C-alpha cells in the first residue's frame, strides 16, 4: 500500500537531499543514511546517474522510502511512477506537473514560497508543501508569518537548512520535517566514507528526537 506525503514525511527526522553522480554509490549511501535513522531519501534528478541510483536503492535497500527530487515536469513524474518511486518532490509546481501527479498517483511534495502559490496548491488539494529555497525566501520568519493566515499548511523547508538551524524551523507549528544535503557531503560520498555519513545522519536523528522530546 502506498503512503501519503504526510505519512512519509512523518517518518523522516530529516530528508536527505541527494545528488548522486555515480550509481555505484547509491546503495551504500542509502544504507548509511538508513543506518543513521534517516529512511526517507530524496534523490534529485540533477545527475545522469539519478534514475539508475533510484532503481538500485528501490531494489536493494527495502528499508528506505525512496523518492525523486527536482521533478519539474510531467514526463519526469510519469517516469518516476514507472520505476516505482514512493514519492516525488519539486522545487515548484506547474499545472501539468500537478496533473501528472494526480494521474500517476505518486504522492507529490510541490514547492511553494508565497501566499498565492500556497493558496493555489491548497485549491488543488495539497496541504503538505516544500518551502524552497528556505533560507533565501525568508526562512524561519517567513514561515512563522505564513502560519498566521495559512495554518492548515505544513512545510518541509529545504535550502540552507543544517544541524545549526533545524531547531529554529522545528519549533514552528507549521513544519512537518526539514530537508537538506548536509548529511551527505559530496567529498564523503566521493571517498566512500559511509561511516561519516551514518554519523552525520545519526547526529541529525538524535537532535530531532531531543527537540521533539
Ligand atoms: C534542495 O534541493 O532541496 C536544496 O538544494 C537542498 O539545499 P541544501 O544543499 O542547502 O541543503
UniProtKB/TrEMBL annotation:
Its EC number is 4.1.2.14. Signal peptide: none annotated. SUPFAM superfamilies: Aldolase (SSF51569). Pathway: Carbohydrate acid metabolism; 2-dehydro-3-deoxy-D-gluconate degradation; D-glyceraldehyde 3-phosphate and pyruvate from 2-dehydro-3-deoxy-D-gluconate: step 2/2. The keyword Transferase does not apply. Belongs to the KHG/KDPG aldolase family. Homotrimer. This is 2-dehydro-3-deoxy-phosphogluconate aldolase.
Amino acid at each position: 500500500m502506498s503512503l501519503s506525503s504526510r505519512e512519509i514525511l512523518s517518518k523522516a527526522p530529516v530528508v536527505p537531499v541527494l545528488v548522486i553522480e555515480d550509481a555505484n554509490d547509491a546503495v551504500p549511501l542509502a544504507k548509511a543514511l538508513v543506518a543513521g535513522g534517516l529512511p526517507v531519501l530524496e534523490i534529485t534528478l540533477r545527475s545522469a546517474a539519478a534514475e539508475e541510483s533510484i532503481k538500485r536503492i528501490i531494489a536493494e535497500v527495502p528499508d528506505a522510502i525512496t523518492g525523486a527530487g527536482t521533478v519539474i515536469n510531467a514526463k519526469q513524474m510519469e517516469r518516476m511512477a514507472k520505476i516505482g518511486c514512493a514519492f516525488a518532490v519539486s522545487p515548484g509546481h506547474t499545472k501539468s506537473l500537478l496533473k501528472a501527479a494526480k494521474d500517476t498517483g505518486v504522492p507529490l511534495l510541490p514547492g511553494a514560497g508565497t501566499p498565492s502559490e500556497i493558496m493555489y496548491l491548497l485549491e488543488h488539494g495539497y496541504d503538505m508543501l516544500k518551502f524552497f529555497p528556505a533560507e533565501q525566501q525568508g526562512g524561519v520568519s517567513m514561515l512563522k508569518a505564513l502560519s498566521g493566515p495559512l495554518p492548515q499548511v505544513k512545510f518541509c523547508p529545504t535550502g540552507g537548512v543544517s544541524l545549526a538551524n533545524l531547531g529554529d524551523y522545528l519549533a514552528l507549528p507549521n513544519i512537518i520535517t526539514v530537508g537538506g544535503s548536509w548529511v551527505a557531503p559530496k567529498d564523503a560520498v566521493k571517498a566512500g566514507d559511509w561511516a561519516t555519513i551514518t554519523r552525520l545522519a545519526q547526529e541529525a536523528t538524535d537532535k530531532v528526537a531531543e527537540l521533539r522530546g
